[in-house]
Amino acid sequence: MKLVWSPAALDDLKSAIDYIEFDLDSPMAAKRFYESTLDKAHLFANVLGSGITLKTTRDIDTGYRYIVCGNWILFFMIEENQALVVRLLYGRSDYMRTLFGDIDKVSYFK
Predict the structure, then answer these.
(1) Is the entire prediction scored with pTM above 0.90?
(2) What pLDDT, on the 0 to 100 scale, is given for residue 63?
(3) Which architecture, in CATH terms, is 2-109?
(4) Torsion angle defined by CA atoms of residues 72, 77, 83 and 84, in that order, rounded to the nearest 10 degrees
(5) Hey, where are the domains in the chain?
(6) Which end of the chain has fewer surrounding CB within 10 Å, N or C?
(7) Structural contact between residues 3 and 85, judged by C-beta atoms closer than 8 angstroms
(8) What is residue 41's three-state secondary structure?
(9) Torsion of CA 65, 68, 69, 70, to 10 degrees
(10) pLDDT tens across 54-104, in order?
């Protein structure tokens, strides 16, 4: 399956790497994170049905799947014949609000 990164996901990846490399002053950890994240994304794309659905953990059927990459979470959608990386978000962030905006106003959260 083809792997495609959204512009937002690419920005997220760059921000995460910059944070690890410069804010945490750990260039080697940033390199390992980058390589591990790409490996996991490619594995997801090549193993159909991998990843966890949000419905499994949040009881919300959104079409999103995710995999954990250290302290970060890669969110995917399967579209036609491709795996689309939608976002890479910090695991302790309010990622539901980042993905869906004001969740109180979204009907499938009620």
Answers:
(1) no
(2) 84
(3) 2-Layer Sandwich (3.30)
(4) -70
(5) 2-109
(6) C
(7) yes
(8) helix
(9) 160
(10) 766 666 778 899 999 999 999 999 888 899 999 999 999 988 889 888 655
